[in-house]
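Go through this:
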Amino acid sequence: MCAIAGILGGREPDQETISTMLKTMKRRGPDAHGIISPRGAVLMHSRLAVIDPEGGGQPMSLYWRGQHHHLVYNGELYNTPELRRELEGLGHHFLGHSDTEVLLHAYVQWGEDCLDRLNGIFAFAVWQEETETLFLARDRIGVKPLFYTQQENQFLFASEIKTILAHPSVPARMDANAVAEILLIGPGRTPGCGVFQGIREIEPGYCGTYQHGQLHLRRYWQLTDRMHTETLPQTLERIRYLVTDSIQRQLVSDVPVCTFLSGGLDSSLISAVAAKAFRDNGERLSTFSVDYEDNHLYFTPGKFQPNSDPSYIRMMTDALNSDHHWVILNQEELVDALPEAVEARDLPGMADVDASLLLLCRKMKEHATVALSGECADEIFGGYPWYTDPDIRSRSGFPWAQSTAWRASFLHKDYRNILDPEEYIHCRYVQTCRESHVLDGCHPDERRMKEMINLNFRWFMQTLLDRKDRMSMWSGLEVRVPFCDVRIAEYMYAVPWSMKHLDGYEKGLLRRAVGDLLPPEVLWRKKSPYPKTHNPAYLHLVSGKLRELIQDGTSPLFRIADIHALKELLTAQYPWPWYGQLMNTAQTIAYMLQVDHWLRHYKVELV
């Protein structure tokens, strides 16, 4: 993976600006960097070398039929061999074996229609020099990021917000909508919103062109419903093929590969398929897990976390004979990593869940450059508890954040007067439901499940993908997510809920399809989310830091958040999470600490 950036129009940037922007990109691409300044543009790239280290350098240029094309690309294509063969049949010649070169040739051959042929995760830009036209695209599911801002006569794009903010013409500002994003929706974001004023994100499944000062975006892909005509045995066979094929394709690398292993269904399945591929090559798979010091002393089963991971992880490592690595974190380092996680994400995030992932990825990078992870199976196969809870399904609003009134209580009085929290949430929720593609005549219950899947796909899943991308790339670790294969997403969207929920189990269809690949205890383990700390010392530490902020009274946090609500947060225990299944009182306090650091570190101006 890599970092990309570009500056179009306006006054030509000086070397200091380019150097400053490149510096922000180095963590995503520590191995090399490149700059090209064709007529009308400056394109920048920092590289994490994974495929063809010698021949895949960027920016990459190609002169084709009288025109110069220049590409910067962040991502990985998993159908590179098929594309390459097709392009060679059309007369294309290649100098190396990188997917970057294949992507560039695919674009010059098919233009923006090349997107229909790509299976992978990507964000890329192609500058066509003679027409001074920029083409931008982001992968269908949103695994790789791509932000932009448009000034009067200048256009900037980059993999991360920090790179755009490094340009002297882009101030770090937030308006009332940004406050709403932070306190009413955060750590999620409205699709396309970059939170900072004037900064937007190309949405998943969108592409666009920028020419003569005008940006035109269009959606080239979305989840589309269709009749599912296959029998249950055919569906099981198809799912097994798609999932195992996706995992196997994503093991291709010229650098060391490892896997995350939580002992849950998704990461265990990926690790099982990967371990077999390694054994077939006479190698041993490395697996990684995270836990917290003395966590076993304080864990108590609950609705969202019915059991803890360690015993299942040990069961899997024994079955796989993997080279397993435990990363055990203590409470102090977890708290200390909260600010760094903000800087990695450029926004407040999922508190200790972000911080622990950042620390885990740092350790993994010592052993490997590529890791496979189980994100997105729950969204696509129906694994979350809100899919199966009829009470939650029947409610309006985002099922992972049914706490708008509570969130609104944290708004500073200046924003209570200009924001309508219920309307802010409701209009976004309704719009997403309306955008859900459902066949005419669909049963109301099935329609609702399609809406639930699209809500999760467009919102909750994006938060998790943001988290995984930023926390891993902060250490130059490329994380691949096999369940995000577009073939799986498209196929499963059409599968009726009765099949998805086979045997009355969340992800029942997936479990049945791969039943012989995992120990039964792991195969039928009830879903348990990413592990968090249960040690009361963590709550004590983050509470102490928030109490210090309140006593000092000068924090910029108090310009957007109500200090009395923050004081109450220190003493009350709320029955609902701030976000998802993991962010309870301790994590909500940690989130407020992250907001404080974000406002300070980025010197955010309120407008």
